[in-house]
Amino acid sequence: MSYVITPPEQPSVAVEGTEDRFPVRRIYCVGRNYADHAREMGHDPDREDPFFFQKPADALLPSGEDFPYPSQTENVHHEIELVVALKSGGNDIPEDKALDYVYGYAVGNDLTRRDLQQAAKKVGRPWGTGKAFDKSAPISPIVPADKIGHPNTGRIWLSINGETKQDSDLDHLIWNIPETISYLSGLFTLVPGDLIYTGTPAGVGPVVRGDRVEGGVEGVGELVTKVV
Ligand code: MN
User: What is the pTM of this model?
Assistant: First the structure.
């Protein structure tokens, strides 16, 4: 057997402090998972069921690499997020076992063409063009959970050109990590290599060409992206 075209490259993320790579299958993202962000987007922050969308795995952008301002938009927003990397998978994973499925954690930015997302929302169309575009998923190296444990508190922040824009704490997540993994595994068969972007706190806003975007999660790492 041979492929009729050259197979695409396997997307992957660096593992902090090693030459090893974490191979990525899917990128799941949680919508509105911090009450203050739900409120700023005009939604009721009551604990409705979590909802999910996806980005393609090849939308990953390593920390330190430039983000080329994308086409067809005039309003790209930053969304700093804790990212969970899964080492095992399955369906209907119980909450009290969910952390056993986690390989490690990273810092991600769920970059969003907000104008296209808002236009799609208004007419009930899917979010793909707003969320799942090329290089829309900057990510820091992954740190293994056996080094740092499983963070459930800690500062999550983002600054642009040194000015703080987002500043919150992981303990403000509406759906915590075990609950998110458990719920998601009821919708999809999770597989080793899946990433979950777990949602962003308040303070989202635009980036423009020339911006240096820095963000981090306490105890996990930092992510730097320059917009060009
Ligand atoms: Mn997000």
Answer: 0.97
